Amino acid sequence: MTAEPSSDTWLTGLIAVSRCTPPRSCAGSSPPDRSPFEAERAAPVPYAGRVDGFHAVPAAVYSTRLVRIDNSRHSVTASALGRPVEVRAYAERVETRRDRRIVGEHARVSGRNQTVFDPWHYVPVLASKPDALNAYLTRRLCAITRTSYGSDEAHPWPIYPGPMPSEVLAAAA
Fold first, then answer.
1. Strand runs (DSSP E) across the chain, as ranges?
2. Rg for the chain (alpha carbons), in Å?
3. Are 94 and 102 in contact (CB under 8 A)?
4. How many other C-beta atoms can be found within 10 angstroms of the C-beta atom of residue 94?
5. Beta-carbon neighbour count of residue 145 at 10 Å?
6. Distances (CA, A) of 157 to 154, 161, 164
7. What is the pLDDT at residue 111?
8. Rounded Cα gap, residues 132 and 123, in angstroms
9. What integer pLDDT is reported at residue 157 of this predicted model?
10. Cα–Cα nearest to 76, from 136, 119, 133
C-alpha cells in the first residue's frame, strides 16, 4: 500500500504547477503590448465644459407656478402658467424650458417632497395684484386663529398689524 500525500502537500504542488503553466488559450503567445496605453494614461486630454447628460420629461405648470419632477416641485416664471414645458433633470440642476427658452433653473435637490422657490418668479404676479399677498396672509391667519382659539377676538396677541381679520373678511364679502 502506498501512502497518500497529505492534502496540504497536494494543494501546494497544484498551485505551483498552475503558476508555471500558461493557460491553454494563451500558450505560445506573448503578453499584449501595453506601452501605447501607458503613454496615453500619462497625458490625458482635459475636458473643458459641462456634461450635458439629462433626463427630459414633459410637464404641466400648476396654478402655483410649480412643476413636479422626481417627487419635488420647482418654481417657474409666471409666463409659463398653463403651458406645456419640458423639464430637464441634469445631475446637478433642474432646468425648465418652454419653446426652447429657459423659464426656470434650480439646483437639484436630493430628497422627496421638497419645494424649491425662486422669489423672482412671483414678482410679476405680485406687481399686478399688490393686495394678493396681503389677502392670502389674512385668510391663513384667520384659519389659524379660528382653529387654535375658537374666534378672532380670543387671540391673546395681535398677529396682523392692520385691521382684525374678521373686519377684512366682512369687507371682502
1. 55-60, 66-69, 72-75, 84-89, 93-98, 101-107, 115-116
2. 35
3. no
4. 22
5. 20
6. 9, 11, 12
7. 84
8. 12
9. 47
10. 119
Element of type H or E holding 91: none
- Number of neighbours of residue 87 by Cβ within 10 angstroms: 21
Residues facing residue 102 across a β-bridge = 97
Dig out the grid coordinates for 150 from the structure.
Answer: 375658537
b/e 20-48 (16+ beta carbons within 10 angstroms → b): eeeeeeeeeeeeeeeeeeeeeeeeeeeee
Closest alpha carbon to 120 in 137, 103, 136, 107 = 103
What grid cell was written down for 86? 419640458
Q: Which three cell numbers stand for residue 93?
A: 440642476
pLDDT in 10s for each residue of the chain, 173 residues: 455 555 667 777 767 666 655 555 555 667 777 777 777 777 777 777 776 788 999 999 988 899 998 889 999 998 898 889 999 999 889 999 999 999 999 999 988 889 998 888 888 887 787 677 677 777 777 666 555 555 555 544 444 455 555 555 556 55
